[in-house]
Amino acid sequence: MPQLQWTRLGREQAHKVLEQLSTRRDAVVFSKDVTEVSSCHLPFYTNYWLFRLVNYATMPTFSLTYFSDGTDYICLDGTANPVYTVNEKSPIQLTEKNVLQYLEFFFGNVQGSEGDVFLIKDPARVPFMSALNPAQQQGVTANVKPVTVVTDSTQNFRVRGTLYYGGELITSTVVVTPAGKITFQDQIPVLSGVYLPESPYSEAWLEG
Amino acid sequence: MGQSNLNDFFKPGQILPSHVVMIKKALEILEHSPHGQQLVNFVEKKGITIKIMPTPQPEAYLPEKNLVYIGFNKNKPVSPSCFVLMLAGVLREAQQEAAGIKHPRLHAPLSEHVEVSMAKHEDKVWYMCAVATELNDQVTFTEYKFLDEIRKMGHNEAIDLYIEQERKK
Prior knowledge:
The complex is a heterodimer.
Chain A: E1 7-8, H1 11-22, E2 35-40, E3 49-55, E4 62-68, E5 73-75, H2 81-89, H3 99-109, E6 111-112, E7 115-120, H4 134-143, E8 148-151, E9 157-165, E10 168-176, E11 182-191
Chain B: H1 19-30, H2 34-46, E1 49-54, E2 59-64, E3 67-72, H3 80-98, H4 110-136, H5 146-152, H6 156-168
Parallel strand pairs in B: 1-3
Antiparallel strand pairs in B: 2-3
Helix pairs in contact in B: 1-2, 1-3, 2-3, 3-4, 4-5, 4-6
């Protein structure tokens, strides 16, 4: 998936977003003077866009990302709930072509108790590969399976590949329903003790 | 091998105490440290509002001088000791603001940003180290492992320097 393409909103549009957000009961305070608002379209949503608010008057900068259809705002909080809520409100449009993009978006924004899930599309371009010792690098290269996508008889997408989670590489089938719900089947741990120095998503998404 | 189950990924977030209880407890713990006590006094005197918000990664945020947020992911909540130290850090930032040590204006020269922001950051981390060390020295909080926690937060070098300096006193 190419990196998300964010477009900075003009002053008026940005203020409109901030005003709408400020009326919410659970609103997080963002000052109009020091906050930049950007938006981004995702190919599998028709009515909802992403809006990213960045407060530049703090160090480090503080940012939150929301789904919005222009009136409703749902904050991405690192759990699956906001994504599933949007999938229900504005039915997600998944195809064999964009299901990988959806997974990359999903895993990039949802963390589990053991941190990030990262689907490895290319073993030669695993983030922070250089931080691993030579034996681990070899292990990664030898154990990563190419990603395959098929649609089964129940119209679920079955994405088979190797994932990084909790310091392990696990080959698994990620089952994605047409409504965007995700489960994992046939999990086979293939390599353990692979600890990346930082979240794989802290390096920009490497694959075009 | 095989410790991680990917389906755990979707287990509902852990059941946590209410926000009110978490904040109250954190302030109570801070009161056991002289530097922390000073922060609690500041909260009371200035009427600082402390809120918890859901965020993908642990965050401490000071949008206004009398309002601080602590954020974390419900799927992977921060430990109580991390929460206390994050609170100490952001309250110290609020103290800096109250004392007139503000972040430079957005269009201020880069040198000013580097100088002021780094100084503020150093002061904040130093304060967190003081709180962590003071609490870590108390038997009541042995299990909280405050020194381990501040290292996990990425302040290895700062805590080593702080301890070294305290030893020399």
